[in-house]
UniProtKB/TrEMBL annotation:
<dbReference type="InterPro" id="IPR002740">
    <property type="entry name" value="EVE_domain"/>
</dbReference>
<dbReference type="InterPro" id="IPR015947">
    <property type="entry name" value="PUA-like_sf"/>
</dbReference>
<dbReference type="InterPro" id="IPR047197">
    <property type="entry name" value="THYN1-like_EVE"/>
</dbReference>
<dbReference type="Pfam" id="PF01878">
    <property type="entry name" value="EVE"/>
</dbReference>
<feature type="domain" description="EVE">
    <location>
        <begin position="3"/>
        <end position="133"/>
    </location>
</feature>
<dbReference type="InterPro" id="IPR052181">
    <property type="entry name" value="5hmC_binding"/>
</dbReference>
<protein>
    <submittedName>
        <fullName>EVE domain-containing protein</fullName>
    </submittedName>
</protein>
Length: 139
DNA sequence: GCCAACGTTGGC
DNA sequence: GCCAACGTTGGC
């Protein structure tokens, strides 16, 4: 069981947009980065991830679940790009901000901190539990 | 709005 | 296969 983090600009695709899709979920399309794509290829149905808002907000705002494994990105004809489908699971009672994450030595090794530009990234189980705890989310 | 960091592209 | 140029991302 692996844990993940999906990053999105709320002006493009927000947590609210994701919630509005309900259990049907939505493709995590638009990824044009090999590292991010490769992580999506590793994802299994049922695995969980954080939904992170970049740009102005910069916070973990909820959890999502993978509901379909990697398949071709319907938004492009380029066969290189694939994506998974995810659905919203639970909104954070207290969004965990990037500042909080950076200030916590237990979270200093997060990819979010180390490689801020990667839009799909793995999260360790320890990081998962800690952020869930801070956010008031069920792990 | 700026800029650093990083990934990709294309010429050689 | 290297590397300069360029484009994009995202934090500040």
């Amino acid at each position: 069981m692996s844990f993940w983090l999906f990053k999105s600009e709320p002006s493009t695709w927000s947590w609210e947009d994701q919630v509005a899709k309900g259990d049907a979920g939505e493709e995590w399309d638009g990824v044009r980065n090999y590292q991010a794509r490769n992580f999506m290829r590793e994802m299994k149905v049922g695995e969980r991830g954080f939904f992170y808002h970049s740009q102005k907000e910069r916070a973990v705002v909820g959890t999502v679940e993978v509901i379909a494994e990697a398949h071709p990105d319907s938004k492009t004809d380029d066969p290189r790009w694939e994506c998974v489908d995810i659905k919203a699971v639970q909104a954070a009672k207290r969004p965990v901000t990037l500042d909080q994450i950076k200030d916590d030595p237990r979270l200093s090794e997060m990819v979010l901190v180390k490689n801020s530009r990667l839009s799909v990234q793995p999260v360790t189980e320890a990081e998962w539990r800690l952020i869930c705890d801070l956010a008031g989310l069920d792990p």
